Amino acid sequence: MGDPKRIKKKYSTPIHPWQAERIEEEKELTREYGFRNKTEIWKINSILRNFLRQAKRLAATKTEQSEKEKNQLLDRLKRLGLLPETASLDDVLDISLKDLLERRLQTLVFRKGLSRSVKQARQFIVHRHIEVDKKKITVPSYLVSKSEEPLISFIPSSSLSSPDHPERKQEEKKEAPKKEKTVKKPKKHEGKKQTVKKEVKTKKTENKKEKAEETKQEKKE
Q1: Which residues pair with 135 in a beta bridge?
Q2: What is the pTM of this model?
Q3: How far apart are CA 41 and CA 17, in angstroms?
């Protein structure tokens, strides 16, 4: 039989493992695009680096073979919707990581409103509920071409194909009614209490004044 072929990695890990800025960016991307782990980000990043590497190499050489490869690269990026039809080789260098992430099947299922969240879109794809151009695809990181984008739908045999399915209903956020501030009116018995207290205070002050005058007269005598 011979020795089995060693499978090489399809991505490259970061050079430095502890970079605070990169770690924060990866956390934000995992929350926004619903990644299972960071290796999915590294795989997409390595695909982007391959595109940029090819563009730099083809820009430096001018041969018949390089022209063919140049046209093939541009056609592929245009099919994926990463470049406009009038783009040149220099425009390849402007492609960002988020541009590639927006072409993933998981992202497009969520953007088209077929799921309530990005994580739910991943669940639908893995559980064989999604098809692209009548082909069942179970890979969330599948890069969808521009022609395939309108053909993303649920499989007809799936229970999720009906829009009345409870998992497909979008939850509408209801605004809570604003509470009007009500001014509390003083109760009748409270008003009476206040008047009684004032009368008691006035009587006390009058008694004190009378006592003070009596003590002054006694001292004079």
Answers
A1: 132
A2: 0.72
A3: 14
